[in-house]
Amino acid sequence: MSFLAKMKGTTQSPPRVSLGEMAWSWLGSCLGIAAVAGLHYRFFQGTALTLMVGSFGASAVLIYGAIKSPLAQPRNLLGGHLLSALVGVSAQQLLPGLPWLAAPLAVAFAIVVMHATKTLHPPGGATALIAVIGGPQVHALGYLYALVPVGLGALIMLVIALVVNNLPARRRYPEFWL
Predict the structure, then answer these.
(1) Where are the domains of the chain?
(2) Can you tell me the distance from the alpha carbon of 141 to that of 137, in angstroms, rounded to the nearest whole number?
(3) How far apart are CA 88 and CA 90, in angstroms?
(4) Looking at the whole model, is its pTM more than 0.85?
């Protein structure tokens, strides 16, 4: 098979989801991000800590909108974010002042670590990248970044995913824990 022929794809696009599925995805993502944002603005605003991480938006797509995906399961959500945060902080601390090098190494090593630990969660790549490019406020957190905001925020979103995704009879989350 030629190199270009491989890019044609092998399957058709999946069917559109129902309006009900869209509504539950909307509700879960709205509540999950609202909980993290609400806690951030109530308890962390004006402090050196934060609870808002951009990669949580991508996690919301997975854990509320693609709940059957292996990448959306609790092990992947929590492990992918936590491990990627540790990798990202390590890259930033080992290569301070070299974000052009630390950034790609953080993302690449985060992917390898997630693969090796069976915790692949695509937003984890962004979590690692944010540890490098997040600026002085994120850098000042050091390894605490892995716990607050990353671990705590992901845990809050997981609790909401467990509740919201199991309210309708036709939805079930998670597919697996470990």
Answers:
(1) 19-164
(2) 7
(3) 5
(4) yes
